[in-house]
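Risk mitigation, structural track. In case the binding assays with zinc ion fail to produce interpretable data, a predicted complex structure has been prepared as a fallback.
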Amino acid sequence: MKPIKVPRKPRKCPKCGKTTVVKILYGMPTEESLQLAEDGKLVIGGCCITEKNPDWACTNCKVEYIKVK
Ligand SMILES: [Zn+2]
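Fallback model:
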């Protein structure tokens, strides 16, 4: 699925309307970030970083968002 372009982090997911949009963390996750991911407050994005990596994701409907100016 292609990420949706947004100027900033959406407070509510435009697709499902829930406030479950969280930051995607790239690189090696720490113990703290793994805990946050378990709580649904963070998404672990893996360590493959490209220019087109999305910035946020909705943990409810799995839609991803990418920041654009
Ligand atoms: Zn959603």
